Amino acid sequence: MKRAMLVVVLMLCSSISSYALLDRLEDPLAELYVKESAYTSSSSPSPRPPLMVPLTLLPASAAVKGAVCLDGTLPGYHLHRGSGSGANKWIVHLEGGGWCNTIRSCVYRQTTRRGSSKYMEKQLPFTGILSEKASENPDFYSWNRVKVRYCDGASFRGEGQIESKNLYFRGQRIWLAVLQELMSKGMKNASQALLSGCSAGGLASILHCDEFRNSFPKGTKVKCLSDAGFFLDAIDVSGGRTLRKLYRDVVNLQGVAQNLPKTCTSRLDPTSCFFPQNLVGSVKTPLFILNAAYDAWQLMASLAPPSADPHGFWKSCASKHASCNASQIQFLQDFRGQMLRTTRRVAMSAQNGLFLNSCFAHCQSEIQDTWFASNSPHINNKRIAEAVGDWYFGRGSTNTTKAIDCAYPCNKTCLNIM
């Protein structure tokens, strides 16, 4: 009897640990939340601590409208007001953090900041595209800058609930409630606005781009930036499609289909319409795609996850690209080729921008060293912040806003954050 109970306890602990590990893997900034110094530029001789911005929860009226996290708590955001020339300009940045595709994984997220505002940090450091320092964020430092917390598990697109588990899939309602809240705080009068997001938030910035544009008067300059959100419907190392299965389960469980763009669902199945490659062609608002050609999250969790690599042949390569053998490198080059082909629709439009570097990284706009520092990754001597700024403000020629790197290992400026 005792032995059986021990086995059950060990199995339970193992399951919980796996979800905790997945949550950690889905959030490239997890360690940086508790190591503020990691946000500062390594090139700075005397780095100052980053600005810490407090959490604001939506008012109780949001809950009345059903705009709640997975556990029913109020969603939140962090806002730092703009000043001077940026007082009437806004960045809304959507937090990332993967997805939950089963009741069990969504219930687990209720015990983390990914599903409950009870566990969200009371303050977050604003760095990279959210920094208030001109030396770290030259084009947007004086704007109103908002980070919207992610607690729905479906890129702000879900609609539904499971009463027996007290699970609420209300991503779309959260999005609308946050938008309404920010409009009431002055965003409705914005002269310029940028919707951005990282990872699952980067996917959300594509999904919600035209909605964001349509929330403003025609005279407002509105654009969208997706950072590490261009997830590919790619074949994994076992010949299967790990990410497609995950997306199918997310779409079905969280009622995402009804909130997907009709321009896509009228011709493709809902799961396909959760992939950016099938969405960007119909986005009317100017869009900038920032992505690593060898996206670290996609490599570890989509292309070579343990489920597709039971014997661990890819374990070392997935965590440290220098360990990859020739055939593995070729597999990654093929993945880059697919990334180039599927971003072609973005590159074809004169209004869009693209920065596709050959780094092993994920979410490069939020981390200071990758966004704007003396040692930041660059293509043709242009850093990410400069490329995004040139695109947003229309500086330079059309060709300069579409930067595609040569293949690995040519770019020696990559930081390769695995």
UniProtKB/TrEMBL annotation:
Among the entry's GO cellular component annotations, what is one?
Answer: plant-type cell wall
Coiled coil (UniProt feature): none
What range does the record give for the signal peptide? 1-20
Identify the InterPro entries for this entry.
PAE/NOTUM
Q: Where in the cell is the protein located?
A: Secreted, Cell wall
* EC numbers: 3.1.1.-
Give the GO terms filed under biological process for this record.
Answer: cell wall organization
User: What terms describe the molecular function in GO for this protein?
Assistant: pectin acetylesterase activity
Which UniProt keywords are present, listed alphabetically? Cell wall, Cell wall biogenesis/degradation, Hydrolase, Secreted, Signal
**Which Pfam family would be a valid example here?**
PAE
Q: Which family does it belong to?
A: Belongs to the pectinacetylesterase family.
User: What is this protein's function?
Assistant: Hydrolyzes acetyl esters in homogalacturonan regions of pectin. In type I primary cell wall, galacturonic acid residues of pectin can be acetylated at the O-2 and O-3 positions. Decreasing the degree of acetylation of pectin gels in vitro alters their physical properties.
Please report the name of this protein according to its UniProt entry. Answer: Pectin acetylesterase
From which source organism is this entry? Lithospermum erythrorhizon (Purple gromwell)
